[in-house]
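[stage:ingest] chain + small molecule (manganese (II) ion)
[stage:ingest] validated
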Amino acid sequence: MTIENHFTTKFGISIAPKSIAQDTVKFIHASDIHLGAAQYQNEDRANDFIHAFKEILDLAIEEHVDFILLGGDVFTSLEMLPGILTKIVSILKDFKEFTNNNILIIAIEGNHDIRKFSRGVRFERRGQSWLKLLNSLGVIILLDADLNAPSEEIFKPYNFKTKQGGKIQIKNIVVYGTHYLGENPISFLSKVRKALVKNNGIYNILLQHFGIEGQMENVPGVNLEDIQPLRHRVDYLALGHFHKQYVLENWIYNPGSSEAVCSIDNSFKRGVFLVEISTKCEKFVKNIKLIPLTNRKYIWDTIYLKYEIRNKKDIETIIINKLSSSLKNLNTDVHPSNHQKPLLYLILKGREPNKSCKIKEKDLRVKICNTFPILDVKVYQKYEKSLKTLDNYILA
Ligand SMILES: [Mn+2]
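[stage:predict] done
[stage:export] tokens:
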């Protein structure tokens, strides 16, 4: 039995044509794909992240790009179910074969790529990641620098035999990249800056996994002033880390996460950048399109519990009844793999139910999923714990 190549099935040709434009370079900048997210709870939801990745690869073929940049957090953790990894490797092999290896996928490690999903044990960095495996299989280019080396040896050209290196040239573009440099990367970045070479006629991209302070509320980041020295040697700073999209000063780009990794991601502008760099009169002209990706549909619903419920059955009945009216228009005929089948984010507010009938989110989830045509539900219990009734005040 032969398994069809995903891309041949989709595009119906045996090998994608190569980009022939000489004075133009086209690439996709994506980040924070978080492959492997949701894999333990819901297989269809886990597939959403793989689907977003496939969509990026499809776009690369449709747009005849020269390469794809992945700004870290390609995987969500080091823990990976074999089935998920098998799918990812198979897609990447299909892509390499279909594009005749003409569209390189260039990645760096983000904090999640080197993070073990926390189970109370702090995982020491031992230099392991799934990206290293994909790099050794020859299906991606993993860039990393040796920051302890003298300046001129920090970024070695990527060697396809040893599969190591910190920079790679494609046409007149040089991409430099390092692994995640931690929460305070400034001292490392000054080493990085000294090691970057600015040559005439060469467009420099630096691939990094950090956020810029102020772009996300209450999330620490690097001060914009502190990275200004990089600007003299970097034409395009390709970032990942923050799941919210932003563009700063016409040289700093962060595309945001490909799928919503947590519910708040849904409120951010996100997607990928499709970038074209052309040379006109010895100057670089940059053209950037923001491309949103197809994400899973989602619904927010809030249920307000007016009084303290003392009977477990009552809670379930109230929740199911309320949802019956708000979800009544949902199509019952949608397959779970279809993105139109929504995720439900349910907030419970008001009076906290009595201790004797505490809501078990697992049980409630099963009940709701069995009753309504949704893919999954996440319950948030946000009660007004110290809410006092008028009676409390009078008695006090
Ligand atoms: Mn991330």
